[in-house]
Structures are given as structure tokens and as C-alpha cells.
Amino acid sequence: MNTDSHRKELLRKLSRNLMVSVPVMTVVAMAGMSAVSENGLGLIPSAEAAQGEAEGEAKGEAEGEAKGEAEGEAEGEGEAEGEGEAEGTSEAMKEAVQRPEGYEPYDGDTESLARKGEALFSDTSLSSNGLSCATCHTNGAGYADTFSKEYPHFVAMGKSDFGMDKVHLDEMVQICMVAPMAAEPLEWDSEELAALTEYMRIEQEKFQKR
Ligand code: HEC
């Protein structure tokens, strides 16, 4: 279990790494997220890239990516640098978004959870950067093809940024909370997490029928 100070330290680390990945993702979001399903990702420079490279350089990469260039670059470069440190960071990242031991999700009425989840989906106050889930995911946008698979499954961002081989849907909500939304993960037993997870389940059904 995480102590509070452990969590604070972890989140401090995360937000430092995310200073780079968030602008990149925003650029991609604006570009219509068309890159996502094509290459299974590569749009989030990994934590190591943030540490190894000057920020100016990372911005250059973001621009290149938005234009559909240099897509493999961010990843390749990240891997070449600072691997020792990266491992520790990714372990901490994983801990923030992985189901805790003895996890018992909030148990509520499915319909009211779905309604609350829908409202939270467009709530920018969940993030620290002015984004809401809807900024990237309105009308089924912004998902890779993996979203149509039954959970738990492999998600590129889960692997590249959090070192997870498979993610559950509630873990995916936490991943997007921590990475693109640059926020703390939601409390595991909170109604908010249950609500967003239920709403995403409905979004997934729509996505599967596309
Ligand atoms: C800045 C853009 C951005 C924001 C904001 C964002 N996401 Fe995502 N989300 C992504 C990207 C990019 C992917 C694709 C990741 C991948 O496939 O590796 C994704 C994928 C997902 C997936 C599907 C993963 C799969 O393939 O199974 C879910 C579910 C999801 N996001 C939920 C959310 C929720 C809930 C929020 C709000 C709390 C949110 N996202 C906010 C960018 C964003």
C-alpha cells in the first residue's frame, strides 16, 4: 500500500516527466488523433526522453510527430538513454495505476454510475492541464484498435509509459488520468472511478460497433 508521502513523491516525479508528454498529446489530439490507430502509438515520448533531452528538443519532436514524421524516433531515442533510471521510474508509474491488492471497486447502481461517468467525461476539473477525457475522446476519437478488445488486454501506452503488459479498464482510466490528464489517479474505491469505468464500458460497446 502507498503511504501518502510516497504517493506525493511519485506524483512529483510523474508530473516532471509529463511536462513533455502532455503538450505532445495535445498537439496530436488537435491533429485529430489520426496517428493513433496507424502505428499503435509512439506519440508519447517515454519518461526517459523527457529526462535525457532538453525540452526544446522534445518540442521539436512533437511538431515532427504532428506532421506525421519522425514517429518511431521518440521511442527509439528514449530507449537509448538513461535506462537504469527509467526502470525505477516506470516501476513507480506502474504502481500509481495498477489495481492495488485487495481492491474492491465502488459498488453502485449501474445506470446512475453511467450518468455520473458521462458528466465526469467532460469535466476539465479532473485534470491539471485543462483537458477532459472528451478533449481527446469525443465520439469515439483517440482510441487505438485495442479498445475494441475485451479487458484486460495490451495497450501501447500502458506498456511504453507504465511497463504494463495488460491493463484492465479501470486501470486504463487511471492511466489516462495520470498521463494525458496530468492528474493524480482517482481513489480506487471512489464512485468517480467506478462511474468513469462504467461509462467507458458503454463507450467501448459503441466503439466495437463502429
Ligand atoms: C490528451 C489526450 C487524452 C486525454 C485527455 C485522455 N486520453 Fe484516453 N487515450 C489517449 C490516447 C492517445 C489513447 C490511446 C493509447 C494507446 O492505445 O496506447 C487513449 C486510450 C484510452 C482508452 C482505451 C485504451 C485501450 O486501447 O483499451 C480508454 C478507455 C481511455 N483512453 C480513457 C480515457 C479517460 C477515461 C480519460 C479521462 C479521464 C481519457 N482517456 C483522457 C489520449 C487521451
From TrEMBL:
<feature type="compositionally biased region" description="Basic and acidic residues">
    <location>
        <begin position="92"/>
        <end position="102"/>
    </location>
</feature>
<dbReference type="GO" id="GO:0009055">
    <property type="term" value="F:electron transfer activity"/>
</dbReference>
<feature type="region of interest" description="Disordered">
    <location>
        <begin position="49"/>
        <end position="110"/>
    </location>
</feature>
<dbReference type="InterPro" id="IPR009056">
    <property type="entry name" value="Cyt_c-like_dom"/>
</dbReference>
<feature type="domain" description="Cytochrome c">
    <location>
        <begin position="112"/>
        <end position="204"/>
    </location>
</feature>
<feature type="compositionally biased region" description="Acidic residues">
    <location>
        <begin position="71"/>
        <end position="88"/>
    </location>
</feature>
<dbReference type="InterPro" id="IPR036909">
    <property type="entry name" value="Cyt_c-like_dom_sf"/>
</dbReference>
<dbReference type="GO" id="GO:0020037">
    <property type="term" value="F:heme binding"/>
</dbReference>
<protein>
    <recommendedName>
        <fullName>Cytochrome c domain-containing protein</fullName>
    </recommendedName>
</protein>
<keyword id="KW-0349">Heme</keyword>
<dbReference type="Pfam" id="PF21342">
    <property type="entry name" value="SoxA-TsdA_cyt-c"/>
</dbReference>
<dbReference type="GO" id="GO:0046872">
    <property type="term" value="F:metal ion binding"/>
</dbReference>
<keyword id="KW-0408">Iron</keyword>
<keyword id="KW-0479">Metal-binding</keyword>
<feature type="compositionally biased region" description="Basic and acidic residues">
    <location>
        <begin position="56"/>
        <end position="70"/>
    </location>
</feature>
